[in-house]
Amino acid sequence: MTVHCSFYSSGDRMETFQPTPFLPSLPAENERQRVPASMAAEPASVLAAWQLQAEQAEDLDLRNLLNIVRRRAWAIAGVAAVVMGLTTVKTLHQEPVYEGDFRVLVEPVNAEDDFSNLSALVGEQGVRQSGLDYETQVQVLRSPELLRPIADKLQQTYPDVSYQSLLSNLQISRLGETKILEVKYAGTDPVQIQIILDALSQTYLKYSLEERQTNLRQGINFVEGQLPSLQAQVDSIQDQLELFRQQYNFITPEVQSTQLSQRTTGLSEQRLSLDRQMSGAEQDFLNLQGQTGTLASLDDAPVYQQLLTELRSVETKMAEELTRFSPESLAIRVLEERRANILPLLQQEAQRVLGTQQAIAANNLKTLAAQSQTLSQAEQETTQGLGELPTLIRQYTDLQRELEVATAALTRFRMTQENLTIEAAQTEIPWQLIEVPTQPTTPISPNLRRSLLMGVVASILLGLGAALLLEKLDNVYHTVDELKAGTKLPLLGTLPYNESLEDSAKKSAIARLIKGFRPSQRIDKRSGYGYDASSESRFLEATRVLHTNIRMLSSDRPIRSILVSSALPGDGKSTVSANLAKVATAMGQRVLVVDVDLRKPQVHLRLEVPNDCGLSNLIANDLPLKSAIQQVGTSEQLFVLTAGQIPPDPTKLLASKKMQQLMETFECCFDLVIYDSPPTTGLADVSLIGQRTDGLVLVTHIGKTDRTVLSQTIETLKLAQIPMLGIVANGVRATAMSGYRYYDYGQSATATQLSAEGEQAVDDGIDLTAIQTTESSFSRNNLNF
């Protein structure tokens, strides 16, 4: 099925538009494919590269700084001139200031060598090295106690001299790492400076001789007052310790513990031995009470054994005699009498021996019992000593600790006394004036060369600071690089500032632009340049680059409809739409410009056509297309649908189904449909139209468009899911072009011939597709204008 679009032109000629061969039928709304949704891998990579380049350009580089300096040159020059003027006036009118000084040696150069012997006298105790605290000393020399008497004395001659004036003009510092203090005084009267320095030098020397030893003397007196009490305390503790040792026979805790341990061990051994002896003695005594013990005792008695032997001998003889004699014989009776005499003696001896042994055993028992009692008493004393030992050790330790503390305090005070005495001897050496005060002859201020040099540096820095401050306060983009870095969108083109388009109401400028689309100049093939450096030619060339970049965004399916909008009014969107349409027409495309700005239309002014009947009439009154679409000039490829009468509710018309049908019809009948919309900020018109186009081109005006409003516009478009093709920088001046100065170059001979042939073909009614390259042949590498 083929859709035909027919309407009458302004010359009452019937014009018939047929869709391009690759669109045989009108697809349904839900089946239409938008270019951004079907972009190939190559355009996607191009967009990613643009995004990366924009992110890398965020930081302020040297080129941006130079642009700021060039843009704010008048502000920098003004601030620098004011600062230099003030510096020069102040320098020339400044009263001369003089400065005098003197130097004082505050420590002896060979101080360490002179007192090395004194350090050896105190042995290992050592002497604290004398080092002057210079910062503290300087503050003392600037104190009121030293300066106020000088000020009071000088006020008799110089009434304007006071302590505060002396302090403000006085400088005291250490000369490097030396032992020298340098005293400087500045003023306007050289004679007064010398008098003040003389008074200061005398006061400081007097201070070094009389008053610097006050703290050391007080310290020595304090130490000497504490030494007697410390010595008495040490002596008292030593007496207590001596009395303690005598009373408890206490030497040291270690010796006392060893002695008690050894004594306990010895008593234990004695107790074991004594117990064994008593056990043996008791057993012997018991044995003597029995028969076994008695016999054992008698066996050891010699007299008893002798009598027993004699008795046995008598009985033996009696037995022998009885064998020979009768019992009544004399021999037998003599032997019996003899035996009878021996038996009593034997019994007496046995009793005597047993009595003696029993007495000895009893005596041994008594002796051992006495020894046991003595040993028990010794053991009791030892146990008591062991129980009292911790208390004694604690008392001894406390006394010993008190003695050590008192002795250490006494030793420390004696060392302090020696150190203070040596330090006093070292510091009592008076200061020496090694450089006397002299009357200054050359002023130190003002220094004209230094002041002017500092003024130049300060003026430049303040000027740059003022320029950067103004740049921060300025909420517009001034260069293309700033625009790319701030928006993060692909830059489709940069349109230079065109003086002929400064006033959009000047129709003569539009007429010159229309003529500019027909190249009348001939190319000098030797030079290769086809345009001069005028603003119109640069604007024309930049518009062609913009058109080419838009066509290159999609290689598989050409872009059939675009929406041109801006963040704020006056950014040049209508001018861009009109001139982009003319460039596309010159490139052989059938172009329709639709003014969807039903609030403040501008397209009819840019293309110089009447606005009697337009889009609003077409939607509201259901008129035919031929009554609203107009042909622009003599071109048979460029048509325009103006806004028409301004309706009371433009949003309702743009959201109508009739508007959607018209947009589908436009894309079928034309190669390119350009919708010129109202500004995006605060209006819903762009969201209604942009979703039905292949993409949106956002126009910004360099040096005019507000950054904040532009950022809000981009966020609004992203939320509305409107495909954004990129951004166009309009009104770019030569100073803001940065790396985009190629518009000064013209087209090549081949491109000019191609454009001339295309235009001739349009004039003769020849089909442009015969000489134009196919859509698939467009690429970044072989595009020629």
TrEMBL record:
Keywords from UniProt, A to Z, are: ATP-binding, Cell membrane, Membrane, Nucleotide-binding, Transmembrane, Transmembrane helix
How is the protein disposed in the membrane? Multi-pass membrane protein
Question: A Pfam family in this protein?
Answer: Wzz
A GO MF label: protein tyrosine kinase activity
CDD domains according to UniProt:
BY-kinase
Q: Which residue ranges does the record assign to the Polysaccharide chain length determinant N-terminal domain?
A: 58-153
Record GO cellular component, one term? plasma membrane
Principal place of residence:
membrane
Tell me where it resides: Cell membrane
Which residues does UniProt call coiled coil?
none
What top-level branch of life does the organism fall under? Bacteria
Family recorded in the similarity comment: Belongs to the CpsC/CapA family.
NCBIfam families given for it? Answer: eps_fam
Name the record gives this protein: Capsular biosynthesis protein
**Annotated source species:** Leptolyngbya foveolarum
Starting at the broadest rank, the lineage of the source organism is:
Bacteria, Bacillati, Cyanobacteriota, Cyanophyceae, Leptolyngbyales
